[in-house]
Write a structure and sequence with these properties.
The strands form three sheets. This protein has a four-stranded mixed sheet with strand order 1-4-5-8. A four-stranded antiparallel sheet has the order 2-3-7-6, with no helix packed on it. A two-stranded antiparallel ribbon has the order 9-10. The chain is built from twelve helices and ten strands. Helix 1 packs parallel to helix 4 and helix 9 runs antiparallel to helix 10. It has helices at about 10-25, 35-40, 45-60, 80-90, 105-115, 115-130, 240-255, 265-275, 285-315, 320-345, 360-370, 380-390; strands spanning about 135, 155, 160-170, 180-185, 195-200, 205-215, 215-230, 235, 275, 280. The protein folds into three domains: about 10-100, Acyl-CoA dehydrogenase/oxidase, N-terminal domain (Butyryl-Coa Dehydrogenase, subunit A, domain 1, Orthogonal Bundle); about 135-240, Butyryl-CoA Dehydrogenase, subunit A, domain 2, CATH 2.40.110; about 255-390, Butyryl-CoA Dehydrogenase, subunit A, domain 3 (Up-down Bundle).
Amino acid sequence: MDFNLQPDTPEISAFRREVRAWLEENMKGSEDLRWSATWSTRENEKEYRFRRNLAGKLGGKGWLFPMFPVEYGGLGLTIDHQLVLETELDRYGISLSHVFYTIARIVAPVILKWGSEEQKREFLPPMVRGEISVWQVLTEPQGGSDIATCRTRAIRDGDHYVVNGQKTMVGYHHPPDFLWTLVCTDPSAPRHENLGWIHIPGNLPGITIQPMNLMMGIKNTVFFDDVRVPAINLVGGENNGWKVANTHLEIEHGGEGGVGVDPVVERVVEYCQRMQVDGKPLIEDASIRVLIADMMIDLHVLKLFTQRNFWHRYAREPHSYGGAQYRYYQRMMRLRNGERLQQIMGYDALVPDLTVNEVVDFEYVVRNGPGQLHGGGTLDTDRLIFARRVGLGRPTKEKAPTTI
């Protein structure tokens, strides 16, 4: 695999110049934004509006999903064009995956793979243009990470499905335009053969959203009470939801990859350079430099994992265990980094007052460590997927699904 992420043909070089000039103009006003999807769970309306606006501008140019077919709003470009967009956005500490608060980055590829032609033409263009926000709605109170225990029912009634049930630990601050929801379409069918994925407009009667304040940030519980959803919104066919889920979960569990890296090390170095103890900057303390070096090593390894997964995904060569490997390492690294920050900063690492942590929200990094051990599955989920993909305890290895 070639780790060179800087293609240099005349066409790509010209595209890079175009993208860089466009971003220099359109990223104006973002200098003081902190990209809270990465750093914090605190509400920041200015940031939210900036990102929604940026998503619309990128989507208008076809740059949110540049490799998508033209008929669905993309540009039909190559992986080299995608790399240009990702690397240029990374210069501003953001990526196409997190350009605004939406899970459409996962939903759109799943619909592209599993949706009917009618569904693709109806559902994909608004996502690709960055016009709508979508929540992923999987987890239920009784099921945890075992989403196959789904009890939220979607029973066919003429041209509609009637949805009843409850989902929890989903979403974020702002209400969704759509709920991408795993449902049980046949309660009498065997496990894994009774599920469906349904794309539910967020403003339908019978939907109630109740906020929850959790360690990892603001999430929500969603209640469905006789919600009537057009049958056309069932993606992948009735009782075929587990196959659709495999594609969705592969992306969510690290299979999408990326080109950027968490900027926490640079922010910690800045903090240690300006923060003094007994008249000396913290950076002069050898034990603190060792902790920073450990963070750098962890983040470099993680960057190699995510770049490898990115390449395999867009080259349409699924890496069997790459997603689970990356996800497990990322979770444990975040936990370690939270502990390292407390060693470096002491009690200041636990203070949400931004007059102390003005460079970055370190308090959230500390809190996010244990919190993310239970986000999008658990460590046990990662280990189980990894074991199956390398063939531990089974006569055959489980293959990774194609995600694009």
